[in-house]
Amino acid sequence: MKQQPNENLKRSLGFTSALSIVIGTIIGSGIFFKQASVLDSAGSSALAILAWILGGITTLTSGLTIAEIGAQMPYTGGLYIYIENIYGRMAGFLAGWMQIIIYGPAIIASVSGFMSILMANFFGLSSNWRIPLAIGSVILIALMNLFENKISATFSVVTTLGKLIPIAAIIIFGLFWGNQNALSQTVTEVSQSTSNFGVAILATLFAYDGWILIANLGGEMKNPQKLLPKAIILGISTVLVIYTLITIGILRFLPANLIHHLGENAPAYMTAKAFGPLGGKIIAAGIIISMLGTLNGKVLTFPRIVFAMAKRKDIPFSKSLSYLSPKGKAPIAATVFVSALAFIMMLFFDPNRLSDLCVFSIYCFYILAFFGIFILRKQNNKRPFSTPLYPLVPIIAIAGGIFVAVCEIINDFHGVILFLGFIALGLPIFYLVKKYYNSKV
């Protein structure tokens, strides 16, 4: 196993913080704003619920597979480090490049974009305010992350606890006071020829995504070999149960055709209907806090990939991007860089399309990592954590990843080509940077 260079980040994150970051980073905009798109693609309420369950199972098998790999490589950088150690420097670079140029900014832009929709409704503002609200939210969270990681980790714990209030309210009210049949509704205005169960599962995976971001903080955990697998597995399992119950609760309360009509405004409508104007405002505020917690998890973790790559002189402007604040050891320049790219994406893409494309981008490299577990098993018999039901679990993870990639290619071919083009752009960057730094030696 290749050793990584010494890191200067503080190892201050314990299990509670790690688990909160996993759950808090996953639960955010997706479960609320993807209900309509999942339902439309599935075509019926029963298939929509099944899509959420299968999306959770796919994510759990992915997490179990990565947990074994991550326990053997507890370094800052996550997927970037895993791919490099298994497949070599160029493959690792492309995995990191994809995350800092496409995946990270896209997912930050998407989450903040969804959140701005609810914020505009909450404050009674027009849709013209969505982008300014999204940009302002990212700036606020980015400023907080310029201090010591304990501050953002504490914020993750607080917002994770806070988001349980609207989640519990929606589940309880929907299950016990809803009068719709959650298992037998169909979306009559969506023809069977346009419904696509594969796309429905793909939409749920955006809501489940974010679990691997805790791996980017491997260099800041107190005991990552033990904490990383526990946080990933328990976090994903908890979210799977919560998402299934929320979906059933919403489908018990709102007719399927109404959810189809409301689209992204379904969460605001349901909270107002269920809890009245004041209660609806309180629950909506809780959902916004939930999204802020998710956004915090993204802004906390993605700059760590930039830092890890810059520390090893893998990207242009490495000296600046590897800068850490003297006291808090926060990657200031990396945080600004990722946030700036997110602002650009907000201006050119809508949140729904961004969410699907960023899931496609990350799953292309997930598949490589999943195959890597078989390579590592041949190389190393000593493991801090072993994936249960091996090799069945990794095989399911690989099949799920291929399924995601194929569905998105069929669903948005032009978007896929655009994002693959950005990834391919990393190849000349890799050689130019390598040539530049070699000439400086």
Automatic annotation (TrEMBL):
Pfam families: AA_permease_2 (PF13520). Gene3D superfamilies: Amino acid/polyamine transporter I. GO terms for molecular function: L-amino acid transmembrane transporter activity. InterPro entries: AA/rel_permease1, AminoAcid_Transporter. It is a multi-pass membrane protein. Its main location: membrane. The keyword 4Fe-4S does not apply. It is found in: Membrane. It comes from the Bacteria. Keywords: Membrane, Transmembrane, Transmembrane helix. The chain crosses the membrane at residues 12-33, 45-67, 100-123, 129-147, 154-177, 197-219, 231-254, 274-295, 330-348, 354-376, 388-407, 413-433. One of its GO terms (cellular component) is membrane. Signal peptide: none annotated. The keyword Cell cycle does not apply. This is Amino acid permease. It comes from Lactobacillus jensenii.
